[in-house]
Design goal:
The complex is a heterodimer of chains A (273) and B (321). Chain A has 273 residues and is of the alpha/beta class. Chain A is 38% helix and 11% strand. Chain A has a five-stranded parallel sheet, with helices on both faces. Chain B has a seven-stranded mixed sheet, with helices on both faces. Chain B has a five-stranded mixed sheet with strand order 7-9-8-11-12, sandwiched between helices. The longest helix of chain B has 24 residues, at 295-318. The chains are: A alpha/beta (273), B alpha/beta (321).
């Protein structure tokens, strides 16, 4: 897909996510919005997956360790045909398989996440299995920045670096905000790139909302032979809706009656219809 | 028990290529033969339990059969949330093996004791909880969980446990084993403490009190049938566990007894660690003695219960209140 097409795809994901959250009466919208281009890029331009065969043994494995970003994932999976699009509006309602944190009951979702600091270890296990079986698939995990405050995340980072799991790629949705405020004020991650590198990873930075930048970052993975790779994607929490961007209050908040039409108007402008 | 476990692991690895053993940086000498024979299926995760459990779940999701092994207190508690979320919530057949349950590490102090794990594990859905009594049983447990489709938690003792079974027997997850028959009293126990329980039962038999001993190796799912039968057929039921009396085997037995109709007033008492940290040092057997798990304590508890039952029946007979 061209970058332009990808951009429109991404904004349609945002629109869908907003509709879902409004119907359900809640959702982690702003956190999802910072992940939209990353997830769109992965599914449309990078991961080898088969929507008609989600268990295809040689598929690439994708783990949304940032489980609360699932509103950015479900519309992508539906659009690609992992499950019917009409299921999206059942989000977070009784009887639905689509909940506030992605889990394996959703076709295409590999693991149950929701508590931060778990996904990368699950990814490590899968990367180990790949190595034992000498297969060729990739394991890719999207992490949140807040999640990199969890000690367990660094256990996984240590292990992967030490064992040189070079079929493992992590992407950090580095939107610089956590729940109560900016990361740098609460528990800074800087120097972020250096930290990963010191644990034996090869690191690259990217603009997490720019498809050209993402394509460049992902070209020719692994970034270094014998090392796992991390793409630190600089993003904006709430990206796509001006009043949600970089505002902590929007961590788990849906637009009210006045805000909703503005949000849709801004998103629709970029959907290209 | 840990040597029996290693032996079992070697056989299982031979049997099924998917078996992987993941350890938390323990097991010098213990796993030497496994490491020699299956070097590519032995993984030391280092001192990092959360990642160890998570990667085991990832291995299981990729079709492997992971056995995870470390000291029981760390296995159960260090990364309990990971155990719950990655393994039980996802319902993947990972076998979590804790060595040194209860007071096995008698010289090392409270951080290495586990007196809470059964209470914790009982409350987690999808988890099978097993506590073998001797090395033979530990081996059978390992074999029985190989293709068990649910998450399993196995609490092993450590080393030097005597063989409690006189010979081979048929082991089945969830089916308790009656090790002594008896009609006066019944003891429901689990794990290495069965050694004291059997000694107590044999001494009681000498003084004319016939005591049934039930080895409840599987705490979850509990063999409730055998408990109810014991309550109906004896005059006193006692639980014994190397664990807090809160939330473990005793509580499980009590829940069954209280919720079963037709048993009348069950004469029951829990024997276990009385909600305290065991600050003293010594051998496991010495700590058992000190903290209420000694042979004499078990004997006295049963005698007291039987006297209480007789006294109650006397009151009823003579119409006294």
């Amino acid at each position: 897909m061209t970058n332009q097409k990808l951009e429109k795809f991404g904004y349609r994901v945002r629109r869908q996510a907003l509709e879902m959250a409004l119907k359900a009466g809640g959702g982690h919208l702003a956190p999802a919005f910072s992940s939209v281009e990353i997830i769109t890029f992965l599914y449309c331009s990078f991961l080898k997956v088969d929507p008609k065969n989600p268990q295809w043994p040689d598929r690439d494995r994708f783990i949304l360790s940032k489980g609360h970003g699932c509103l950015a994932l479900y519309p992508v999976l539906a659009q690609l045909g992992f499950f019917p699009k009409d299921k999206l509006m059942t989000f977070a309602q009784p009887g639905s398989f689509l909940g506030g944190h992605s889990d394996r009951s959703v076709p295409g979702v590999e693991v149950n996440t929701g508590s931060l600091g778990h996904g990368l270890s699950l990814a490590v296990g899968m990367a180990l299995a790949r190595r034992i079986d000498q297969k060729d698939y990739r394991v890719v995990a999207v992490l949140s920045d807040g999640e990199c405050q969890e000690g367990s995340t660094w256990e996984a980072i240590q292990f992967a670096g030490h064992h040189g799991l070079d079929h493992l790629t992590a992407i950090v949705d580095y939107n610089k905000f956590q729940s109560l405020g900016p990361v740098k004020e609460i528990l800074t991650l800087e120097p972020f790139v250096k930290r990963w590198e010191s644990f034996g990873w090869a690191a690259r930075e990217a603009d997490g909302h720019d498809f050209a930048s993402l394509k460049t970052a992902f070209a020719g993975l692994p970034l270094a032979q014998g090392k796992p790779s991390v793409i630190i994607a600089h993003t904006i929490k709430g990206k796509g809706v001006s009043f949600m961007e970089n505002q902590p209050i929007w961590h788990y908040r849906t637009p009210n009656k006045e805000e909703t039409p503005i949000a849709f108007e801004e998103i629709n402008r970029k959907c290209g219809e | 028990m840990r040597n029996a476990f290693n032996e079992a692991m070697c056989e299982l690895a031979r049997q099924d290529k998917r078996v992987i053993l993941v350890v938390g940086d323990i097991g010098t000498l213990v796993f030497d033969s496994f490491r020699k024979d299956f070097p590519d299926r032995f993984l030391n995760a280092g001192v990092a339990e959360a990642n160890m459990i998570g990667l085991a779940a990832g291995l299981a999701l990729s079709g492997k059969i992971p056995f995870v092994y470390t000291i029981n207190s760390f296995m159960a508690m260090r990364a309990f949330e990971h155990l719950r979320d990655d393994i039980c919530f996802q319902n993947v057949p990972v076998k979590l093996v804790g060595v040194g349950a209860g007071l096995s590490y008698g010289s090392l102090g409270c951080t290495h004791h586990t007196l809470e794990d059964m209470a914790m594990m009982r409350a987690v859905p999808n988890l099978t909880l097993i506590s073998p009594a001797d090395p033979l049983e530990a081996k059978k447990v390992a074999e029985s969980v190989l293709h068990w489709p649910h998450p399993a938690y196995i609490r092993l003792a450590k080393a030097g446990e005597p063989m409690l079974y006189k010979g081979d027997y048929a082991y089945q997850i969830g089916r308790a084993v009656t090790m002594r028959q008896g009609r006066d009293a019944a003891i429901v126990a689990t794990g290495a403490i069965l050694r004291n329980v059997l000694e107590a039962a044999d001494k009681l038999a000498e003084s004319g009190i016939s005591t049934r001993v039930i080895n409840m190796h599987t705490i979850k799912p509990l063999d409730t049938e055998i408990i109810i039968k014991a309550a109906k057929e004896t005059r006193a039921v006692v639980s014994v566990e190397e664990h807090s009396i809160i939330g473990g085997l005793g509580s499980a037995v009590a829940e069954t007894l209280l919720e079963t109709t037709g048993l009348g007033l069950v004469n029951f008492k829990r024997i276990g660690i009385k909600d305290q940290f065991c600050h003293d040092y010594g051998s496991q057997a010495q700590l058992w003695e000190k903290y209420g798990l000694g042979v004499e304590t078990i004997i006295q508890t049963i005698k007291t219960l039987l006297e209480r039952r007789s006294a109650r029946q006397e009151k009823i007979k003579t119409g006294k209140r």
